[in-house]
Design brief:
The protein is an all-beta fold. It has strands spanning 2-7, 10-13, 18-26, 31-39, 46-54, 57-63, 71-75, 81-86, 95-103, 118-119, 123-128. Helix content is 0%, strand content 56%.
Length: 129
């Protein structure tokens, strides 16, 4: 089992920045994928970003078109925390943000919520316009 805990959400003005953290514990995988999704009330969970690693080496990264160039997914070297740096925030970025994890790497399942086995509890991000 893998436990994921998100933090770092909050209220920010449009144009501002936030950094979300996803701390992982439990079972470890040599190759794994961490993703961020977001969800607003009444809508399906939306893919934001994902990155795959083998050990501490990044294998692949992918962003949704809506956040490309503004958000960055990264990891703190050999640690177990993955970050989502969010810059130039817009009102439409308001959502509950979830981190998700899976063992291995499968490009065909990268952007689908069903492709992930483990989920955090979510953290609210609110961008005021």
């Amino acid at each position: 089992q893998v436990q994921l805990v998100e933090s770092g959400g909050g209220l920010v003005q449009a144009g501002g920045s936030l950094r979300l953290s996803c701390s992982a514990s439990g079972h470890t995988f040599n190759t794994y994928t961490i993703a961020w999704f977001r969800q607003t009330l009444g809508k399906e969970r939306e893919f934001v970003a994902a990155r795959s690693w083998s050990g501490d080496n990044s294998l692949y990264v992918h962003y949704s078109d809506s956040v490309k160039g503004r958000f960055t997914i990264s990891k703190d070297g050999p640690g177990n925390t993955v970050y989502l740096q969010m810059n130039s925030l817009k009102a439409e970025d308001t959502a509950v943000y979830y981190c998700a994890a899976r063992g291995g790497f499968d490009s065909s399942q990268l952007t689908a919520a069903s492709g992930y086995n483990y989920w955090g509890q979510g953290t609210q991000v609110t961008v005021s316009s």
